[in-house]
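Input structure tokens:
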């Protein structure tokens, strides 16, 4: 099932519709890198976790079938309003490559469920207004305004903390899943999930003149998919000074912001952060909702997932070969550059 919400936005002097796609897609991807470590089969289990604030939330856990020993963990944080089924192709590819992937459904999810929260209910109304096109400008302004509210980020940080705790202690974790290697935990996210990832990677969030440092030292590598630049959501140019860990930013030539920001804005943190182990992966023609499976030939999706796996292998498994492969020549339309 795919939830599609459309809203109009101006690009230059032309108005067009952009799609925000939440949910799962039906087919699996296959890349040579994803098949290197383990068999093709992936085990999947949905668990119910209880965060420290008392909220229960569903979490989707995947791991390679037949895996032995402890494995690296990758946490994926979905976009605002989405749920644990987002980026299915991507997370399956990562699991096939020898990773445990975990996808919590955050409190802002608009998915109909007995577990849907008040902030999810309220956000669903905004999304319905955007989808209908009624009072489009007001609905878009309401969404942009909500992105500035700290309640969404704060609730996600509670979720991520619980996920890591469960993964390391086994409390509520799938009994049949491999053990998690506590020294090798990565964090990734799309859109608002990318914002969540940036915060946990050490980007300073400024609110009312107060600098918030939300770094989680248990995380060692980060992937920011369609993330945010300075000037929004408490992010300033100086916010990125403290991003010292390895980070891969992913964006595309049609990846515009909710308030009309240009695609280049999404990659400004790449240039503003310290240069060591910082990468940007740029997909020609990719829009905000395209990064699970970019448009064009299947090879583009395969290349994107392969480069993502190269990054995880380089910084969660210590593979020098994959580190070199990250910036190797790619098919037309995909570029990866290191600073």
């Amino acid at each position: 099932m795919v939830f599609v919400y459309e809203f109009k936005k101006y690009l230059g002097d032309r108005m067009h519709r952009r799609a925000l796609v939440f949910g799962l897609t039906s087919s699996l991807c296959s890349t040579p890198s994803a098949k290197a470590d383990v068999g093709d089969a992936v085990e999947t289990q949905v668990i119910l976790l209880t965060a420290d604030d008392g909220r229960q939330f569903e979490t989707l856990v995947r791991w390679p079938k037949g895996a032995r020993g402890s494995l690296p963990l990758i946490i994926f944080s979905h976009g605002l309003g989405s749920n644990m089924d987002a980026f299915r192709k991507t997370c399956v590819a990562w699991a096939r490559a020898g990773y445990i992937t975990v996808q919590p459904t955050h409190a802002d999810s608009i998915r109909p469920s007995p577990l849907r929260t008040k902030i999810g209910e309220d956000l669903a109304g905004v999304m319905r207004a955007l989808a209908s096109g009624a009072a489009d400008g007001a609905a878009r302004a309401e969404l942009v305004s909500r992105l500035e509210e700290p309640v969404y980020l704060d609730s996600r940080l509670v979720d991520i903390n619980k996920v890591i705790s469960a993964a390391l202690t086994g409390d509520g974790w799938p009994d049949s899943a491999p053990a998690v290697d506590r020294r090798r935990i990565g964090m990734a996210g799309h859109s608002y999930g990318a914002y969540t990832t940036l915060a946990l990677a050490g980007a300073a969030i400024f609110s009312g003149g107060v600098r918030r440092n939300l770094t989680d030292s248990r995380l060692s590598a980060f992937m920011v998919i369609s993330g945010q630049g300075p000037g929004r959501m408490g992010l300033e140019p100086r916010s990125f000074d403290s991003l010292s860990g390895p980070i891969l930013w992913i964006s595309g030539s049609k990846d515009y912001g909710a308030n009309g920001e240009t695609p280049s804005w999404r990659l400004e943190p790449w240039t503003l952060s310290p240069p060591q182990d910082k990468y940007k992966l740029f997909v020609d023609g990719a829009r905000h909702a395209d990064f699970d499976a970019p448009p064009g030939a299947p090879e583009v999706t395969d290349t994107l997932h392969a480069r993502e796996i190269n990054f995880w292998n380089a910084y969660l498994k210590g593979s020098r070969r994959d580190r070199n492969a990250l910036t190797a020549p790619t098919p037309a339309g995909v570029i990866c550059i290191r600073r």
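The chain has one domain: 29-113+150-338. The first helix runs from residue 88 to 96.
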